[in-house]
Amino acid sequence: MKKKLIGSGLALSLFLGGATLNSTSAQAAPLHEKTIKIEQVSTDKVEPHFWGMVGKAAAKGAAWGVGWVVGEKAAKSVFGSSTSDSSDYEYNDVKSSFDL
Description:
This protein is mostly helical. It is built from 3 helices and no strands.
């Protein structure tokens, strides 16, 4: 019993000592400050890319349209069509179904 107690105490002291050593030896990395050179750029030479914007808008529109068509077809294949085009219902049959 005495050996187990001493062995446990020794193991615990080694574990806590190692944890303390590791936490005290951890430091932040040294900071090296550098100057940043900023140059003034004239905005006169900057022109918007008109055709790039047009192409981007066209691509977004095409992607939206394709997504719409694919989504409609997927919804119909999964859930089926919930609309009925036939008007074969008799007015009195429909009215009597809602009467209590």
